[in-house]
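Researcher: Please translate sequence to structure tokens.
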Amino acid sequence: MAEGDWLAERFEEQRPHLRGVAYQMLGSLSDADDAVQETWLRLSQAGSDEVGNLRAWLTTIVARVCLNMLRARRSRREEPIEAHVPDPVVSSAEGVDPEQQALLADSVGLALQIALETLAPAERLAFILHDVFAVPFEEIAPMVDRSPAAARQLASRARRQVRGQAPAPDPDLASQRKAVDAFFAAAHDGDVDRLVAVLDPEVVLRSDRGARHPGASVVVCGADAVTARALTFSRLSPHAKPVLVNGAAGVVVVLRGRPFAVMGFTVVGSRIAEINVLSDPERLCHIELAALHH
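Model: Translation complete:
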């Protein structure tokens, strides 16, 4: 086998892992694919002679590519990002397939991805590589131009911030689904009391309509404010198909055969603590919605 073919084969074996690292780093499926492609270009230029542990080498390269992309994104971003919802990973309600599991790693729910967006690029890299992919701080340190001890501090700071912003969802999917079903049933019936009962008092609703509709992208806080939008949910409920969104209970709203919105729910203590809605047509076109065809 020629070296180029051998390298390509070894790279394809690592692609799911690399795409998972890149997605966790960037929160964008298209950007993750770009980062993986850039990693392949760098490997093909380096050749196998310079590579010892291929998985570790590729993980380092894709992480550095993502770090540069995050820094570039920060430097040009001017619009408020409060209502931004990262690209969701949508799976059949029956379960997550192996390729999607590699994307999600051990993280659950969009709430964590949204919390990751608030981290500085170096913090995000240190936290994801160490806490999600078990990369030692000795390997992380040179990526962020810091000592291993400083890299450990970056991850620790990120961990505190993420835990404060992203509540851990109930581990039982059936419990999550029960709360989501109760929410839509109450919205459909216009029953305010039942809606309030299924919502956490501090519930956050984040709705991302995309760059073309910036004024329509909103963040709403509190059970009363979210309940006030019950009419919108009552209109959507007949078109809501149960799916998993980043491994947690969610729905895809399908209108005229096309996805109109993806809604991810974070259920904590049997109550809904977060609702994250992506209804940006441009991004929905690129999201893998194979779950619709199950």
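Researcher: Any highlights?
Model: The chain has a mean pLDDT of 89.
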